[in-house]
């Protein structure tokens, strides 16, 4: 499954939101969760990978999920991406 989400945090995805994405993605142990941005694809379970994408406010990122609980994982990670975390 895949779906696009828009970064709404004015500061983009920095350490705290990246950590929240990684933490939420890690809750779905039996699902593969990736983020795709500007032609690069990284695991959402890797804070380093998430940070290397350099996503800024207004950017659209594609969340790709496979495996058990793929639909739940897609929406859970997407809601973190679209939230505003300081």
Describe this structure in words.
- The protein is α+β, with helices and mostly antiparallel strands and 86 residues long.
- The chain has one domain: HPr-like (Histidine-containing Protein, Chain: A, 2-Layer Sandwich).
- The chain contains 3 helices and 4 strands.
- The chain has helices at residues 15-26, 47-52, 70-82, and strands at 2-6, 31-37, 40-43, 60-67.
- Strands 1-4-2-3 form a 4-stranded antiparallel sheet, with helices on one face.
- Helix 1 (15-26) packs antiparallel against helix 3.
- It starts with a strand and ends with a helix.
- The mean pLDDT is 96.
- The number of helices is 3
The stretches of 5 or more residues where confidence is low (pLDDT under 50) are none
Strand percentage: 25-35%
Mean pLDDT: 96
**Strand order within the widest beta sheet:** 1-4-2-3
Q: What is the number of domains?
A: 1
CATH architecture term? 2-Layer Sandwich
- Rg measurement, Å: 11 Å
CATH-assigned fold name: Histidine-containing Protein, Chain: A
The CATH class name reads Alpha Beta
Percent helix range: 25-40%
Show the helix and strand layout.
Layout: E1 2-6, H1 15-26, E2 31-37, E3 40-43, H2 47-52, E4 60-67, H3 70-82
Helix pairs in contact: 1-3
What's a quick, concise take on this entry?
The chain is α+β, with helices and mostly antiparallel strands and 86 residues long. The protein has helices at residues 15-26, 47-52, 70-82; strands at residues 2-6, 31-37, 40-43, 60-67. Strands 1-4-2-3 form a 4-stranded antiparallel β-sheet, with helices on one face.
């Amino acid at each position: 499954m895949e779906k696009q989400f828009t970064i709404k945090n004015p500061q983009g995805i920095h350490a705290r939101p990246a950590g929240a994405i990684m933490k939420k993605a890690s809750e779905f142990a039996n699902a593969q969760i990736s983020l795709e941005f500007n032609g690069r694809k990284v695991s959402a379970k890797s804070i380093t990978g998430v940070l290397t994408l350099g996503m800024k406010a207004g950017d659209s990122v594609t969340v790709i999920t496979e495996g058990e609980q793929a639909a739940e994982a897609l929406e859970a990670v997407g809601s973190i991406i679209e939230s505003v975390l300081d």
